Amino acid sequence: MLGYLNKVIFYLKRQLKLFFKWLHMLFEWLLTPLNKVIFYLKRQLKLLFEWLLILFKWLLTPREIILRQRDRIYNLKLSTKIQGCILSFIIIFFSWMVYSSLFYVQFDELIAIKNKKISALTDNLLLAKEDQKKLGVLEKNYEKTISAFLENTESNLETIEKTIIATGLDANQLVGRSIRDIPSGGPFIPEMDENKNKLVLKFKPKKNQTSSRVNNNIKRLEALQNIMPSLPLVAPLDYYWVSSNYGKRKDPINKRDALHYGIDLVAQTSTIVGTTAPGMVTFAGKRSKYGKVVEIDHGYGIRTRYGHLHSISKKKGEVVGFREEIGKLGSSGRATGPHLHYEILYDYKALNPAKFINAGKNIFKKG
Ligand SMILES: [Zn+2]
Fold first, then answer.
1. What are the backbone dihedrals phi and psi of residue 188, each rounded to the nearest 5 degrees, phi first?
2. What mean pLDDT do residues 337-355 have?
3. Residue 182 phi/psi, 5° resolution?
4. In a domain, 2, yes or no
5. For 31-74, what is each residue's pLDDT tens digit?
6. Is there a single domain that holds both residue 251 and residue 337?
7. Ligand 1 center from residue 279 Cα (angstroms)
8. Distance 171 CA to ligand 1 centre (A)
């Protein structure tokens, strides 16, 4: 029994020994390639470091550089420190290059967006410039229109004012009165005397004050257009001849020097006498020297007087139109024969009616 047990133990021992041997062999077989790789890598690294060491040693060896330039020799000695600096600089520079190129790639998108915005802005700028051009053209057209308008109004003003001046009336004073006569509700114009008004309306604006010039012209033209129909610019008779002018003359009855405040228009008795402008009858009746006389107020301080009438067909307070019959020509009062004594008064001061009639002739020729 014991012998048999010994045999078994011996057998097991041998088997175990074999098993361990086999394990050892397996491990050795497994480890060999890994060892080989590690060994290889170690050797390569060592070689690399050796190589780098040699490189740096070589790079940082103190050296002399001989430069030749135009027959001259420059001898530069570079110490390990200087070479180290140069090397460091080169390394930093290349690192920066790599970094910045990465940075650039990273911000490529942002740059694209920025460019888009810039192009949009440029487009807007171009559009704005085009608009500016269009505005410029409009402005030019506007200026043309305005200057044509100004020319037109000013030539009209000139014509009217020349006519008024020809009658002996004061155009500025009349304009002042017309503006003051605007009924309430119109533009507010502060009370001022006629001289001040004259200054305001005579004032000629500078070129850059176009709008005030336009306003001034319109205002003045409106005022004058209101005044013009009230001016007695025609004769009160259709056919006549002048027997006595306005001014100094010999009195036809006592033959002494005298002032004649109107003109004497001769025509047949009972010729129709018409108003020379619309207005209101302020007197209709007898006055010693004038005989049968009619007086009409035309506004703005302008009045007309028709004397020596044969008969009167209007009453005081009646409103009369232009060329409306007021009576018939006669020789009542202080007259030597049938004629019409015709006066024009401005603020109760007599003006020469012939001047009015002549000024009117010019206007009606043009019209
Ligand atoms: Zn007379």
1. -75, 120
2. 95
3. -60, 130
4. no
5. 888 888 888 999 999 999 999 999 888 877 877 777 777 777 77
6. yes
7. 22
8. 27
In this structure, are 218 and 274 located in the same domain?
no
Q: Return d(Cα 110, Cα 117) in angstroms, integer.
A: 11
Distance, CA of 276 to CA of 83 (rounded, Å): 119
Number of domains, the chain = 3
| Ligand 1 centroid – CA 245 distance (Å) | 8
Overall average pLDDT of the 9-31 stretch: 91
Q: Which of 54, 84, 106 is the last residue of a domain?
A: 106
Q: Say if residues 221 and 153 touch (Cβ distance below 8 Å).
A: yes
- Whether 150 and 254 map to the same domain: the answer is no
Residues 265 and 319 in one domain: yes
What single-letter DSSP state applies at residue 9?
Answer: H
pLDDT 10s digits, 80-89:
888 888 889 9
Distance from the alpha carbon of residue 151 to the mean position of ligand 1, in angstroms: 43
Summary mean pLDDT of the chain: 85
d(C-alpha 100, C-alpha 302), whole Å: 96
DSSP assignment of 189-228 equals -----HHHHHHHHH----TT-HHHHHHHHHHHHHHHHHHG
Q: What is the pLDDT of residue 51?
A: 93
What would the mean pLDDT of 254-263 be, rounded to a whole number? Answer: 86
Range of the structural domain that residue 269 is part of: 241-366
Q: How far is the CA of 251 from the centre of ligand 1 (A)?
A: 10
